[in-house]
Amino acid sequence: MHTPGPLPHHVSGGRAGPDVMKVGELVLPLTGCSALEKEIPALMRHCTLPGQPSRADHVDKGGDGHGTCDCGKCKCDAGWSGEACQYPTKCDLTKKISNQMCKNSQDVICSNAGTCHCGRCKCDNSDGNGLIYGKFCECDDRECIDDETEEVCGGHGKCYCGNCYCEAGWHGDKCEFQCDITPWESKRRCTSPDGKICSNRGTCVCGECSCHDVDPTGDWGDIHGDTCECDERDCRAVYDRYSDDFCSGHGQCNCGRCDCRAGWYGKNCEHPRSCLLSAEESTRKCQSGSELPCSGRGNGICSCGNCECWDGWNGNACEIWLGTEYP
Q: Which residue ranges does the record assign to the Integrin beta epidermal growth factor-like domain (predicted)?
């Protein structure tokens, strides 16, 4: 989850009655801006590019500082145009340089949702609703509109950059589901064995953990589990989210711990081992009076007749719990 932010505002000036004018979401009296000093902060939103930080000089200068804000609408200086005076009417950049300035982090010009004008993206908002915005047109708030109700976030949340941030008691991609359990029960279900909410690696949403995936573009997250207790990054000697080199290539990653193949050992299966015992002899030595080796509870692994215990366990058969870390 992200921190909630305000909905972007779009200037849609027009009369709302004989004595008032509508500016965005505001209905203002037609008495001149001198009588609207208390509305100045709200009016300035309409002279600020969505997704861009506001400036102290917006009271006097509109948009990017290339015009004057008059009752919530920008009057641009000579040589500038656009709702926030963000586009120069003349450009001294080559097309190559201009396009390079318009590329997002994925090297896509204006996120394929706008056109590049002298190094600045003009987002495709032909319908006039202003739902596509951002420096590189990376935000598309149409993603927040419920297909059935046509309401933003189902009427139970706010939208920022194409993501819904739901009110308490609601969840879902578009806040379409109401949580039917108490906050206490939700917290209980999300509590990991070590007493942490979602293992401090996720967000609790109506009793289910939404893990903070390190690479959200991947098919399988590095952090997973009912309470986000598994962190696959621990299976890599050097973390690289684009690499699948788990356990040094000599084992299987199981909930953040490496199960090494025969002949290898170490936290990340990085050390080769030569063993003169057969697999049967090795297992028999690890059983230590138990039917299963190494206490048979997943407290360690049997390697060449010796039990290698997980953190928090000790003993010849990993039968002693030290109580220093949750298993």
A: 99-138
